[in-house]
## 1
Amino acid sequence: MNVHRHVVFRAGAHSLAVAIEHVARIVPYTTPTPVPGTPENVRGIVQHRGKMLPVVDIGGAQPNPFTLLVIVEGAHGTLTGVIADEVSGIVDLGAATPIASAQSGLAPVLSDDRVVLVVDVERAFVCTRLEERP
Amino acid sequence: MDTLAAEFLLETEESLAAAEDVLDQLERRGATPDDVHALFRSFHRIKGSAGFVGRSDIGARAHEVETMLDAARRGKALDLRAVRDGVVALRSLVTPTADEPALMTKIEMTRIDDVVEILGELMIAQANVMSAPEIAAVRSPELDKSRTHLTRIHRELQRSVLRMRTTPVRALFDRLARAAADLSRRTGKPIAFEQLGGTTEIDRSMLDTIESSLLHLLRNAVDHGIEDDRSSVGKPEVGRVSVSARQEGSSIVIALEDDGSGFEREGIVERARALGAIGAGDLSDAAIDELVLLPGLSTAGEVTDISGRGVGMDVVARDVRSLRGKLRIESIRGRGTKVSIALPITLALLDVMIVSRGGRHWALPTSSILEIAAGGDVIDTNTPGRRGVRVKGAWLPLGALDDVATTSAPHKVLVLQGDAERIAVGIDRVLLQQQIVVKGLPPHVAADPRVAATAVMPDGTVILVADVDAVARKCTERSS
């Protein structure tokens, strides 16, 4: 049984966890192109293998040459890059205890005495357009 | 046409092609048991999936051939001609008829788009290799020749791929002709429908949208344009409606024209006033014709069965805009109406000028740029937030590509043609002019409407493509 296996990575002050089946790829960080009108945590967009994807900063990471981009696949195959300082490893969060209710798609759980924010990929990165595009 | 059915047709076509390959081979060297098995599998697969999508006509025909092949597997002589006939018959069943040329386009389009995508990557890789300092340092006539050759091949490849994306408008025009005949019957108005320029090619991805727009315009023309009693206004009894297509520079212009009554401008103005869309002042005829594009304003005086529910022209205008097209209406009272839609030749490629402003790079469609002028003095107007700039003596509202506060005065201004009016935007530098492969924003990203799309530069960075109409709208919105 590996239904609860998560990729855990550090992003700034937070430990984030994404279910392993939603992690499409982990690549080196490249500077995104800022897009006006996007929510504050969207640093911009980058292209990966010809596809455009938003780069999301959840933990307030300071990009350096070792920064990574965890490419997460959400609903309908949408791809989102999450900035990560380092990948901590793959952890089974099946027995982890939820310690608070999830907010904006992030559910805090306790794993090995550490707080890990489990990313609900269907909710965390879906931001409807601010204005209806013509 | 749903994807499942489209997949089925494509799969059947593949099975038939495989069967033909086997037939070709065994005609040359005689049948082996393996060949018969392979043929059997092809027809069996067609039969199976035909049942799945409810095409019993195809299933029955495949079953006949399959039975024959099964007998051959048991040692009966194989009648090659009968198998060939089966292939031909099935192909005619799956080949789109003239009625439905768009049958397989959805699947084909995604495949073609994949190729365009890969081609874009190839272009980037090629540019990276070419611009590598190690390569650039080599002085060799041979290398120069190969380089030129490579560039030429690439350009040819791009051109042929883009041709795969286009299709002649004739089939679409034929469908309009049938719709016109049907409308003529339903309204009891005799109509002569003419078509011109059917060989003009348009991007397949525009077909569905443009067809619904043209159908709407056609309904308007027959229902409201063509008069009920034409002899009383001294016109021939048969109303004339024509559709035409032609290439004009880098645009395809499709026009639908009728020789009917034209817009009744007084009525349009009255209804627009009633809706509160306009004030009490006088408007030019052209400005009045533009009013029919407003939501809720129909060109019809009354609601009829066929059109005139007050929804329509605004939807057509929006659809045309979504295709990066422009809509133009010319109407003469008593003489008729002509609606022209100018569309880009392809949605995949765009000629742009890349400019910088406030450290950001933007790509602007060359077709929207009227002029590059020296950065004049920015003039603040009495309206807060509304600024203008004087270009060659004329005052233009000054728009912005984004809301990033830029304190420095622009070095240059670009004069842009927006939806309704001309505006200027300040820029620091013109970097280059080139053709780009346009990519949409990721679907789950909310962004400023002034960002139309994105493109990848040769060095792999992403650049934003500005929506000039949205920039103009934003700039004039502030004034109101």
## 2
Amino acid sequence: MYNHDLDEMHRSLFAIVNSIKESISKPSNHVSEEVTNLATTVSYQIQFVEDLKSGSVDMDRIVIDEKLDIIEKTIELSKELF
Amino acid sequence: MSKKISTYSISSILSDFLHQDSNSSTYQFKKSPEVMNELLESVLERVGGKSSIPTFGSDSVSLVLNGELSGIFIHKEKLVFITQNGTFNKSAGASNISALDSYVKMAEHRFNGQYPGKYQLLSNEFYVVDGQYHLQTSKSEVWRKFNLFNQLNQIHMGNDESYICSLLKAAEGLSDKETEAFISEHIKQQLSFETKFPFRCDPKLLKRLTTCLSIMNMEDKQCAYIDLHSYATEFVKDFILLRENPPLHDAIQIESGNNPKLLSVIGLGNATQLNEYITAIQNLLDAKLINDPSFATDLHLTIGGKGTLDRIKEHVEKSVHVELHDDLNEYSNQPSM
């Protein structure tokens, strides 16, 4: 239905959350602003993907695809952080 | 249509992701409570688990007001992040500052649009309290105290109870005149629609507080200060009853032997009518317990039925309105809240 596999995207986003959790829970780690922004971003994106899957997103298809492209970029960018 | 990604930084990605052209969608972006919950668990793990979090004691208040204390605490069995101007200082523990700071920033970011306040997650809830919150309204130390007390009290009290309790706690040590002036400033603040004061309370309730305080003797005041939470709770209940069921309110006042100046009918009739009203209620109280199921019906018949009840209710509403605006003429053209 969409240009992206939502289930795979959801799994990848949760993998980022797990990396962030690890970073936060270690007392010796400094939690950077980038990690903070990433956590905030991913938290919004996971909810968005879940809302898409449940059909509760009222948006033009073209806008949804753009948002999904942004999520892909986030997943790519997170690889540089962890 | 949404904007294209301008750069590849995380903050620009976040901004691009949340960007929506007006009228293009009704969808509201929100953060996943599940993710926020999991991240909170990580913060708790970092600080050594919930059981190792210190309790926020009343002796810590002055440290928070002086900007010397921040961190994560347990207050009234709730998890509270205490910040200073939205951030944490060294008192939070050098190794934990970045994690606490990070979590509060994540939570704050458009999370219900509130800061400080309550943040509800799935299995957790937490509060953010800021020692320097709303400094622009902190005209003096007593105002800063109120701002902090009210944030802390809102954690375990209803809005009105918290407001009243915080006002009195902040005014502790002030003279009667200074306390009255402080409460009057709050009434003006509540009546002024121009200011962005973050805490709301019905100014009529605040006006009633000044009336009650003005006729309280020293002993009663000392009793109230022993347990301000209970006093505030009873005070709010009393005000609600005064407006909803004035005769029952009066019966409770008469039974408790309180000052007759607090009765709903003060100013409605002459001294003889007031005495007759008090005697009639007293006779009923002598014949029946106040919690007897038929007491309320008998009370309404005693005072003269529905017509009298409506007249008293109208008088109460007029009184609280007039009392409020008599003292605050400069605000009298504004609608009552």
